[in-house]
Amino acid sequence: MSRAGLWWVCGALVAAYGTAPSLLAGCTSDQFIPMPDGGLDSGVDSAGPTDGSLSDAPQVTCDGGLASCNGQCVDTSTDPNNCGGCNVVCNTQCTGGTCQLIGGGCDASVPPVGDFACIAVDATNVYWGTGQVASSGGAVWKVPINGGCPTILIGSQDRPHGIATDGTNVYYANYGASSNIGAIYSIPVAGGSPTPLALTQASPLDVAVDGTNVYWTDSGDGSVWKSNKSGTPTPVKLANGAGQGHAQYLRVDAANVYFTDHSSGVVNRVPIAGGSVTAMTTTGISGVGHLAIDAQNVYFGSNGPPATIQTVGLTQTNTAPSQVLGGIASIAGIATDATNLWFAVPTNVQPWQANTGEIHRATVAGKNDVTLSSKQNGPDCVVVDATSVYWIDTGGGMIAKTAK
Fold first, then answer.
1. Which candidate, 34, 87, 20, places its Cα nearest to that of 57?
2. pLDDT recorded at residue 130
3. 88 located within any domain
4. Given 5, 228, 292, 324, which is the most exposed site by the fewest CB atoms within 10 A?
5. pLDDT value at position 103?
6. CATH code (residue 183)
7. Which spans in 47-143 are helix H?
8. Are residues 134 and 49 part of one domain?
9. Which pLDDT score is estimated for 365?
10. Domain span at 123
């Protein structure tokens, strides 16, 4: 009898007798775990279901560089159902453990992803703007999270860059071809007419969203803003402009907006309800840019080479940050789930060196730095969901993902 069949019989006996079965050789008391719903689980497959179903497949020992996924040995470098890791589905092409989300054979009118674009992810799609290099022909697009042919949400935009989603709408920033014509818009994820949330912005760059508001930085004058998502849009300036190039990337929690001041090398916070701007770090961090937050800390990258990832507590004021990782070529996107960091490493500033960029994962303490994807062309703007890490490949004009 197969091991799976043995577990099924053992499970039936446990259900019948209420104890660990001794009637059948191979059944042991620690082989089954009572579940809250009265079901049984073998406890041997942490990657699979734990509801007592027969699909709770065992882990198996695999040779030849194969990985155990759902009781089978698979090649995660090419397997479309386990691309880069178990249960990461790729409906397009899985190569080197990386899923290129924009499929071949799509409409030739789909533009490549532009430089300085950013992405957002919900349960269904990845969204992006075509970037600062696309002026009157700029657009906002979406592609299924498992890959396919992209769909345009809105065209004829002016350099759409920053982007965020709440699963209902997409919020994006038109950077603008010249000062004071930038704007913030929302549009349903299914497409439709965009709603202007703020006009006459200098050069809005990055966007974040919570349950009530949309937030953005204006790199044209260094200010930080918010507006309500529903009802009549009412833009509110949270931080006065510190000058061109100062406010760049931002993240939001329940209390504050955290944003990087690229020109001064400072990470700041300002209450979402309004109030004074507080410098969280000391000055002098060269080219502070992308950032990520968890419940305790903010993590941010600096320019290189060599670049570093540094961190400071969310409640700190004028504090020297701690280095998480050093000796990195450069940092061009960072995300966290409070346990790990995921970050993009383009190996050179523009023009990007072809096929040399990488996506990395390390713990928030800077341990176990591993390369998840290589041979990228200018990876940037990293986001994660429950299973995967996503990024834009600016040099290759692509959206990609791999297992976290």
1. 87
2. 84
3. no
4. 5
5. 85
6. 2.120.10.30
7. none
8. no
9. 97
10. 98-403
Q: Domain for residue 91, yes or no? A: no
Average the pLDDT over 220-232 and give the result.
Answer: 95
Does 252 share its domain with 117?
yes
- Number of compact structural domains in the chain: 2
Tell whether 3 and 108 lie within a shared domain.
Answer: no
CA distance 163 to 173: 7
Write down the number of H helices and E strands in the chain.
Answer: 1, 33
Task: Choose the weakest-confidence range: 1-5, 61-65, 104-108.
Answer: 1-5
Q: Does residue 282 sit in the same domain as residue 189?
A: yes
53 & 116 share domain: no
- pLDDT tens profile 112-160: 676 667 899 999 999 998 876 655 578 899 999 999 999 999 988 888 9
Nearest-angstrom CA–CA distance, 395 and 352? 7
User: Domain for residue 109, yes or no?
Assistant: yes
Say yes or no: 48 and 114 in one domain.
no
Q: Is the bond preceding residue 144 a cis peptide, omega within 30 degrees? A: no
Confirm whether 90 is domain-assigned: no
Q: Which of 77-86, 108-117, 170-179, 379-388 has the lowest mean pLDDT?
A: 108-117
Could you give the CA distance from residue 258 to residue 299 in angstroms, rounded to a whole number? 11
Of the pLDDT bands very low, low, confident and very high (cuts 50, 70, 90), residue 330 is: confident
Looking at the DSSP assignment, which residues form a beta bridge with residue 52? none
Instruction: Please name which of 381, 378, 361 lies closest in space to residue 97, comparing C-alpha atoms.
Output: 361
Predicted confidence (pLDDT) per residue in 36-52, tens digit: 333 323 233 333 333 33
What pLDDT does 116 receive?
64
Predicted confidence at residue 281, as pLDDT, reads 95
CA–CA distance, 248 with 262 (Å, rounded to integer): 6
Residues 41 and 113 in one domain: no
The two tokens of residue 162 are 């920053």
Separation of alpha carbons 49 and 42, rounded Å: 10
Quote the pTM value: 0.83
The CA distances from residue 2 to 9, 27, 36, 207, 384, in Å, are: 11, 13, 27, 53, 38
